[in-house]
Amino acid sequence: MAGLLHDIGIVPVLVQAEHHVNLFADEKNLHHAMAELRADVGCAVLENWEFPKTFIQAARHAEDWHYECRDSAPQLVDVVIVAQLHSMIGSRQNAGLPAFDQVPAWRRLGELDLNASRSLELLSEARDRVDEVQKLLSIR
């Protein structure tokens, strides 16, 4: 759930962009506004909806690769940060990403074999399973 909600702050930003078309006509301005406001607006939304602090923390630091939680045990925010890294592997956003072993959240999650090669392997396996299910559904 935290992974789904970590970017909830983008929705109100986009709604406001529709009301201020001249200000956000330039795509760079819109992307800058989303990047700058995503976390603050998202946290405000989650606080208003009375979500637990762990969800708010995940929204605040989802793309803060160097965020280091005070607790030594793995936290929800760590899972969201590492999931964000995994989701960007192979995308155009990949160029600015740190190495996994440089991310405190990844280190805190321990020896889960979380790396780019393993992510691509899991994606390939998932794609194969989806293809199998699609074949089964199209036969009937």
Helix content: 55-70%
How many domains, as an integer?
2
Give the overall pLDDT as a whole number.
Answer: 85
* DSSP strand content: under 5%
Report, as a whole number of angstroms, the end-to-end distance. 33 Å
* Parts with pLDDT < 50 across at least 5 consecutive residues: none
Tally of separate helices: 7
Structural class: mainly alpha
Q: What is the N-to-C succession of helices and strands? A: HHHHHHH
DSSP strand tally: 0
Shape category? globular
Largest sheet: none
User: Radius of gyration in whole Å, from Cα?
Assistant: 18 Å
What does the model show?
- The protein is mostly helical and about 140 residues long.
- It has 2 domains: about 1-60, no CATH class; about 65-140, no CATH class.
- It has helices at about 1-5, 10-20, 25-50, 55-60, 75-90, 105-110, 115-140.
- The longest helix has 24 residues, at about 115-140.
- It is globular, with a radius of gyration of 18 Å.
- The chain starts with a helix and ends with a helix.
Write a short abstract of this structure.
This protein is mainly alpha-helical.
Secondary structure blueprint with pairings:
Elements: H1 2-5, H2 10-19, H3 27-48, H4 53-61, H5 76-88, H6 104-109, H7 116-139
Helix pairs in contact: 2-3, 3-4, 4-5
